[in-house]
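Teaching note: in complex prediction, the entire set of molecules is handled at once rather than each chain in isolation. The prompt given to students was simply: 'Predict the structure of this complex.' The entities are:
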Amino acid sequence: MSVLSLSHISLTYSGTAQPVLKDVTLSLSQGDFISVIGRSGSGKTSLMNLAAGFLQPSSGQVSIGGAPFTGPGPDRAVVFQDDALFPWRTVVENVALPLKLAGVAREEREATARRWLAAVHLEGQEDKHIWQLSGGQRQRVGIARALASGPDFLLMDEPLGALDAMTRDRMHELLLQLWAQSHTGALLITHSVEEALFLSTSVVVLAPDPGRISFQESYDYGRRFIRGEDPRALKSEPGFIAARERLLAAIYEKEPA
Ligand SMILES: Nc1ncnc2c1ncn2[C@@H]1O[C@H](COP(=O)(O)OP(=O)(O)OP(=O)(O)O)[C@@H](O)[C@H]1O
Ligand SMILES: [Mg+2]
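The expected output is the structure of the full assembly:
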């Protein structure tokens, strides 16, 4: 089992004086589902870009299984907020593209792409073009594409932010099923406290200026959903509601008047 570690990392963008992230330590194991939540500008996307290897920390270390990394790799897949798909290519071509770049033969990459498209309930849509899909369907293509290459870690930056509430609830259940099925370590950036709480084994709150971890707590609602419990019943438990209040208090503490 692999572990992605951020150890005492700080990040200052070039040309700026203030650090965006300061002394952040976070460990994501396969089988974990960690959500990062915090006010706009607190450094969530920067943190995900460090974990993905798109950015290097100014100090501290990023490593996988104890080995430092300095760039992106096939062990980490990223789902972006804007779906980042190729609109003129078909659904199956989009999902198969990273496999193509990795040198996987056509038949195998198409079969893998179709399998993951079925897993995200897009069978029958494989030969459509991206522009023919709804927002929720596009996000599912993005998730299928990320999982098709068999990553150890799935890094997601507000993948569901643009979806309506009902689609979003269905996506939560699908995400949990895919996470359990793929044995990945998931890192989710979100603005939704309820989403973080329902999905995650652990929620991290980033406080801004500079971005740092101000609160972290573990939960088991997602695992209980996977074991068959009803999502609406879980979300109305007193423990869930109390945890939501603690998270909100942690996010909004010291909010300027
Ligand atoms: N490439 C960059 N160069 C300089 N500053 C940057 C760069 N990218 C982000 N920043 C700054 O770093 C801070 C954190 O940005 P980041 O995008 O990580 O925040 P965020 O928590 O993801 O915000 P949001 O919730 O709005 O997506 C902001 O002040 C932003 O202006
Ligand atoms: Mg962001």
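Point out the following to students. The two ends are 46 Å apart (CA to CA). The first strand starts at residue 3 and ends at 11.
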